[in-house]
Design goal:
The chain has helices spanning 11-42, 75-93, 99-121, 145-162, 181-198, 203-208, and strands spanning 49-52, 56-63, 131-137, 141-143. By secondary structure, it is an alpha+beta fold. Strands 1-2-3-4 form a four-stranded antiparallel sheet. Helix 1 (11-42) packs parallel to helix 3 (99-121) and helix 3 runs antiparallel to helix 4. It is globular. Residues 1-10, 67-73, 170-199 and 203-210 have low confidence and may be disordered.
């Protein structure tokens, strides 16, 4: 009986992983957008609100740069990066073979769409909008929930990669042995070894062996 390849399983499993990705992305985006609307309406222009003393507080500020206040003069560059992240994640979503990778990419997608929404629709607009940051960690940064989603998704990707977890995507049909990356190559190599071991050794050859 022919054994199916990893990741090439039935459509229900693939659809479930895609649903996980979209659900995580939707939750991350909704939390980011809702929290920004709330803090702009209730906290912007007011004194910081301590959550854990001076170590964690709610302090609203507009940030034209990236997380940690980097690159404030390159707003449009970060807009294009966020757009590229969205496009890449959407393209690989249909090839996911791993639920943990679906969660990681969902966090990236939700965070990227959240920041992209600010870049496009907040003042001054035109892909140069300033994101609303409000979670202030002492001596570290002031970020929003989109930034936290992107950071958590990135850390999860690093952890999965170092643990040797499946990359999360499979090669498209017809992409050849190089299209599936090292995992595809390793699987083919193991299959070849099994075929070699299965070849019967003729009696005459056995007698010649020491």
């Amino acid at each position: 009986m022919r054994r199916s390849e990893p990741g090439a399983g039935g459509a229900p499993g693939a659809r479930r992983r895609i649903r996980v990705l979209w659900l995580v992305a939707a939750v991350a985006y909704a939390l980011d957008l809702g929290s920004e609307v709330a803090v702009v309406a209730g906290l912007e222009g007011r004194d910081p609100v301590p959550v854990l003393g001076s170590w964690l507080e709610l302090r609203v500020q507009r940030n034209p740069g990236a997380a940690f206040g980097m690159g404030s003069a390159s707003t449009i560059v970060f807009t294009l990066i966020a757009l590229a992240v969205v496009v890449v994640v959407v393209r690989v979503a249909r090839r996911l073979t791993s639920t943990p990778w679906a969660i990681a990419l969902g966090l990236l997608l939700g965070g990227a769409v959240g920041d992209l929404t600010d870049r496009l629709f907040r003042s001054p607009g035109g892909m140069r909008g300033a994101v609303v940051d409000f979670v202030a960690v002492r001596d570290v940064s002031v970020m929003n929930l989109a930034d936290w989603a992107i950071s958590c998704g990135s850390v999860l990707i690093v952890v999965l990669s170092f643990r040797g977890h499946d990359r999360g995507t499979r090669a498209l049909p017809g992409s050849g042995p190089t299209g599936g990356g090292p995992h595809t190559w390793a699987g083919e190599h193991r299959a070849s070894l099994h075929r070699v071991r299965a070849v019967p050794v003729r009696p005459a050859l056995r007698r010649r062996l020491p």
